């Protein structure tokens, strides 16, 4: 995989910086990026979708939406309309997202990571304020994707500081939590939120009591659930069955490598 996005023809043909950036990043993605799920070597630009940049793997049918910019991605990313986003999450219909940061200085991809579709849950979508009455689309409500609320296991790194990870490693990380793909949105949200809490503990081993400390936080995210503690235990069991955790002893857990 080459990280260079430079293309002389594109630079000669176009003048606007944003247009050049869009075409170069799309071209690079189409030419160099492989499918992180099945490692099929090419992703095809979806011709039916003109609004957003969409790619598809014609081997496993996974869809990918590309977000590319010349600045690092911080804790939140502006996305489209709020309610359609929530609807597509409820219907397990969101695409996978890829976040690509490139440089105008050396024309290289600096960083690139994927968020698999099964990590898109209502907990990571923030409702924005409706547009003001003066705006052309007055009342329209957009959303932010809260990257900071996605557990690290849900960020599949492909390129970091211009260095790319081995394809097999990318695929292994992708597959590690793909058992979530079969679950409905409510269940996925719980798993993802619990993984986030585990990560915040910042320990290889932790106890059930430490997880119970997140009860308030979780009850705000899941206001209709009045049995947070049993729910926490259930998620930990699912993560054990999924091979993410190991039960050490009663009430003690280890994160598997
Ligand atoms: Zn594929």
Notes on the structure:
This protein has helices at 8-13, 17-32, 82-90, 167-176, 185-201, 208-212, 215-221, 228-241, and strands at residues 44-45, 54-56, 63-69, 76-81, 96-102, 109-115, 125-127, 142-146, 156-160, 163-164, 205-207, 245-249, 252-255. The chain has one domain: 3-Layer(aba) Sandwich (PvuII Endonuclease, Chain A), CATH 3.40.210. Helix content is 33%, strand content 23%. Strands 1-2-3-5-6-9-10 form a 7-stranded mixed sheet. The chain has a 3-stranded antiparallel sheet with strand order 4-8-7. It has a 3-stranded antiparallel sheet with strand order 11-13-12. The two termini are 27 Å apart. It is globular. The chain has 257 residues and is α+β, with helices and mostly antiparallel strands.
């Amino acid at each position: 995989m080459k990280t260079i996005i430079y293309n002389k023809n594109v630079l000669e043909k176009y003048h606007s910086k944003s247009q050049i950036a869009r075409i170069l990043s799309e071209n690079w993605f189409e030419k160099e990026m492989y499918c992180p799920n099945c490692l099929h070597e090419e992703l095809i630009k979806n011709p039916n979708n003109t609004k957003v940049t969409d790619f598809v793997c014609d081997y496993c049918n996974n869809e990918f939406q590309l977000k590319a910019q010349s600045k690092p991605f911080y804790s939140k990313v502006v996305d489209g309309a709020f309610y359609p986003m929530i609807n597509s999450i409820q219907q397990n219909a969101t695409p996978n997202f890829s976040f690509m940061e490139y440089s105008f200085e050396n024309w290289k991809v600096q960083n690139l990571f994927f968020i698999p579709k099964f990590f898109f849950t209502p907990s990571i979508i923030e409702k924005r304020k409706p547009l003001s009455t003066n705006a052309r689309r007055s009342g329209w409500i957009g959303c932010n994707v809260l990257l900071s609320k996605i557990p690290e296991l849900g960020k599949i790194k492909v390129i970091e500081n211009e260095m790319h990870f081995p394809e097999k490693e990318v695929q292994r990380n992708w597959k590690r939590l793909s058992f979530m793909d079969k679950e409905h949105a409510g269940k996925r949200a719980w798993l993802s939120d619990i993984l986030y809490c585990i990560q915040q503990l910042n320990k290889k081993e932790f106890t059930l009591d430490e997880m119970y400390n997140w009860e308030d936080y979780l009850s705000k995210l899941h206001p209709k659930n009045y049995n947070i503690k049993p729910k926490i235990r259930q998620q930990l069991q699912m993560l054990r069955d999924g091979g993410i955790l190991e039960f050490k002893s009663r009430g003690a857990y280890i994160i598997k490598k």
